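On clarity, I found the account of how folds are encoded harder to follow than it need be. What matters is that the chain and its backbone geometry are given together, residue for residue. The format is easy to grasp once an entry is in front of the reader. For illustration, here is how one protein appears when written out as sequence plus structure tokens.
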Amino acid sequence: MRLLFLLAIALPVAGQPALSDGARAYLVTMTPGDALYSAWGHTGIRIQDEIAGIDVVYNFGTFDFRTPNFYTKFVRGQLDYELSRAAYARVVRAYAYEERGLSLQRLNLSPTQVQQLFTLLEVNFQPENRAYRYSFLFDNCATRPRDAIEAVTGDTLQTEDTPPTSFRSLLHQYLDPYPWAAFGIDLALGRPVDRIATPRERLFLPYELRDAVASARLPNQPLAEPEQVVIPPPEPEEAGFVPTPLLAWTLLLAAGIAFAFFAGPRLNLAFDAVLFTLAGFGGLLLLFLWFGTEHGVTEQNWNAIWLLPAHLIALPLTSGSRKDAAGSRVYWMLSAGLAGLAVLWALSGWGPQVLPMSGAPLMMLLAFRSGRRAAVQSEPVSAPETT
């Protein structure tokens, strides 16, 4: 893609207007929105030339719901995103309507560099060039503007004086309003996101790119003028009570322990059937994300050690008249041990992947109920009524 950027500078689009010497280029940064997909903000590039009558924003974060097999491609990591172009005034109205903030950083580029950036964006906006295979961390709406700015300045953008931080920790900085999304992301994303991001890789996040542009320097001046707030970010609203995953799983753990001591065999078996079936489907989903998609960041997911797909068949095969007491005991002891290991792993953080600490009570529940099944082998799948 960087080669396409460089070629674009030398090969302008036929019929593309030449900008005046007064043309300006801006990095546009949008604040996060209410929807999860907008939780990390957004980035665009504005080209303004009052003499040529041009004032547009280029947006690398567009996708088309009309794409054939849209949802299948999205889930499998095969969805192409596109570069779109819209009038700046229309973009401002849209973000004002969504009650999201918007700011500008004017780039201190020479007229030649502004023209090069405009040409680059126009070449990439051509129908045969505008689509690209989106990558959550490495090729997205912020990395493409980063690459475009680097292409015309010849310098590498990167954050400065930042502590080593993993991709997962960078993502979490924006997820406080979404505790359940944070839990789901920690489940779905595997070991790759626990790698420390390089200063340049951090710029996959719009705010990180904004800060890098603010601190970067050209040979004789800063890369950008001070940030200009066009739409102030809204005041954070006080959220009502929302049960967090930690609270929900703690209550479920208490229920699972109470069932073991106070409920009969049938209710305990029903509880385990629901619990281990859902855990099994969760494990299947992790394996699908690992081996059946092209996301990359969902590979090598160690959450699979406590969400075992085998749970889907283990309970029927190890209960009732079909049970093999010895084999059943081995399976459930192994399940208890793996879930217990996941608890220690989540709480200590010593393993090769960060497991969700908010899921520790759920891991404890699976360990406890698995241990109970290893000890109790007298619950049938279904006991026929006799007269």
